[in-house]
Specification:
260 residues; alpha/beta; five-stranded parallel sheet; five-stranded mixed sheet; 12 strands; transferase; methyltransferase; uroporphyrin-III C-methyltransferase activity
């Protein structure tokens, strides 16, 4: 085992499609001695690592943790201190609802060298793949991202309501298990019941599903379609741009297929 100059690369793996990995992330994965990866990382990406590189799953499905956050941080420190190049691979961007900041702090506090390699966060990656522009001239000049997951179990969704009234497009991460509360909060805060909403499940992957609804029908739509994690909820008029693009696409199918 190498004895000195171990370090940790905290790397974003992008929203799901392995092709959306950055070149910098790819080059880093190719050199890694050991990779600790999360549940939302597309496992195809692990195929870019050297055959002898160790791959350790640290996934956290809602409610089921393969490894606690503290244990993950301990392992990062331990492997880097042993002289290894450690890649901590996380879905999307490591600093967007990814606890990458906590990991960087833990490493810095122990004097372990680290770098952060950004990734395409799912709001951007899944949104664009689903043909939903988060901003659109004349329709939306702002967007915000928020998580519905709260530290305390059953915490309310008041922040979502407040934020929704300040921005044109709202992207909600980790909302699938809180859809009823989100719908109620948004309507109570003043969002119109006919505001368009899209749910993107497994965005940018081959299993991607996109369903469109009004805010009023959101819970019903999610239930009928049996929406599961990981999924994003996009609230705002920009969802209509997707509808228009889909309508126009039907008029040029042959050319669009050539590009795909
Ligand atoms: N760091 C990640 C977010 C991790 S939190 C990022 O930057 O994207 C996990 C949540 O992200 C999921 O519950 C879901 O809301 C969202 N998410 C991640 N990948 C997704 C995908 N491919 N499609 C839809 N939502 C996704």
């Amino acid at each position: 085992m190498k004895k000195s100059s171990g370090y940790v690369s905290i790397v974003g793996a992008g929203p799901g499609d392995p092709e959306l990995l950055t070149l910098k992330a790819l080059r880093c994965i190719e050199k890694a001695d050991i990779i600790l990866y999360d549940r939302l990382v597309n496992e195809e990406i692990l195929g870019y690592a050297r055959p002898e590189a160790r791959r350790i799953y640290c996934g956290k499905a809602p409610g089921v943790h393969a490894m606690t956050q503290q244990k993950i941080q301990q392992k990062l420190i331990e492997y880097a201190a042993a002289g290894l190049h450690v890649v901590r691979l996380k879905g999307g961007d490591p600093f967007v609802f990814g606890r990458g900041g906590e990991e960087a702090l833990a490493l810095a506090e122990r004097g372990i060298a680290y770098e952060v390699i950004p990734g395409v966060t799912s709001a951007i990656g899944a949104g664009s793949s689903a043909l939903i522009p988060l901003t659109h001239r004349g329709t939306a000049v702002s967007f915000a991202c928020i998580t519905a997951s709260r530290k305390e179990e059953g915490g309310d969704q008041q922040e979502i309501g407040k934020l929704a009234m300040c921005v044109d497009t709202l992207v909600i991460y980790m909302g699938v298990n809180h859809i009823s509360a989100i719908r109620t909060e948004l309507i109570t805060s003043g969002k119109r019941a006919d505001t368009p909403v899209a749910i993107i499940e497994r965005g940018s992957t081959e299993q991607e599903r996109i369903v469109v609804s009004t805010l009023d029908q959101l819970e019903e739509t999610a239930r009928i379609n049996a929406i599961e994690n990981p999924a994003l909820i996009i609230v705002g008029e920009v969802v209509k741009v997707r509808e228009e693009l889909m309508r126009l696409q039907q008029q040029l199918p042959a050319r669009m297929e050539q590009i795909g």
